[in-house]
């Protein structure tokens, strides 16, 4: 059963919310089968899947493609789609962008920063919104932890309040001190989802590539539950050795014109 905004609000302080990113159909299928209630199709796809140096290179067309793939793999899961850089610069532009992501299969959209007018306009037009404060990669000049001094901590707290007041039903807190995330979580009525923000948030999100150990670098606040890059390397080497020794395809059952080609 697909969860909606009210379902997530009802979980605040009662049942932690698990969120994973996904960008492809088979990964989304596995996440849904595991019972994860929400998938984020994040603009991190640009860096972890597409080889870009920044999420700022991701376009609406990229997001539509990956949201569609994830929706086909997870037809019964709440899917959040990221609005890419510069696609939410004003309320009208943001609404047109959001409607494209919803049409592609997103249940709700996420945007970065304290964009009060944009969030209100989206919500007033029936678009469910997830906010994002703390470290905001689309505009960040570095990926160091933010909110570490009193002035910056107050700014992030006020941004979180503004995001809630504007109508968002959930907010992502990225790479901020655990104590600050705890204060924000206790202050807000809406759920907080942490990524590098500690255990006091109402839920946690991980980039699926980080969780899989896919790649050659992972943020210090992530965890690798497997090391799929090592598996890919082994499979590629084993396959190459079998082809060069003529062992493959002689070591598989011969096909008779049926099945996959």
Automatic annotation (TrEMBL):
HAMAP family referenced in this protein's UniProt entry, alphabetically: PanB
Reactions listed under catalytic activity: (6R)-5,10-methylene-5,6,7,8-tetrahydrofolate + 3-methyl-2-oxobutanoate + H2O = 2-dehydropantoate + (6S)-5,6,7,8-tetrahydrofolate
Subcellular location: Cytoplasm
InterPro entries linked: Pantoate_hydroxy_MeTrfase (IPR003700), Pyrv/PenolPyrv_kinase-like_dom (IPR015813), Pyrv_kinase-like_dom_sf (IPR040442)
Superkingdom to which the source organism belongs: Bacteria
Protein name (record): 3-methyl-2-oxobutanoate hydroxymethyltransferase
Complexes and interactors: Homodecamer; pentamer of dimers.
Lineage: Bacteria, Pseudomonadati, Pseudomonadota, Gammaproteobacteria, Pseudomonadales
Native organism: Halopseudomonas oceani
Catalytic-site annotation from UniProt: 174
Main location per the UniProt record: cytoplasm
Record keywords: Cytoplasm, Magnesium, Metal-binding, Methyltransferase, Pantothenate biosynthesis, Transferase
Keyword Calcium: no
Entry's Gene Ontology cellular component terms: cytoplasm
Described function: Catalyzes the reversible reaction in which hydroxymethyl group from 5,10-methylenetetrahydrofolate is transferred onto alpha-ketoisovalerate to form ketopantoate.
GO MF entry, a single one: 3-methyl-2-oxobutanoate hydroxymethyltransferase activity
UniProt pathway annotation: Cofactor biosynthesis; (R)-pantothenate biosynthesis; (R)-pantoate from 3-methyl-2-oxobutanoate: step 1/2
Residues bound to 3-methyl-2-oxobutanoate: 43-44, 82, 110
Pfam families on file: Pantoate_transf (PF02548)
EC number: 2.1.2.11
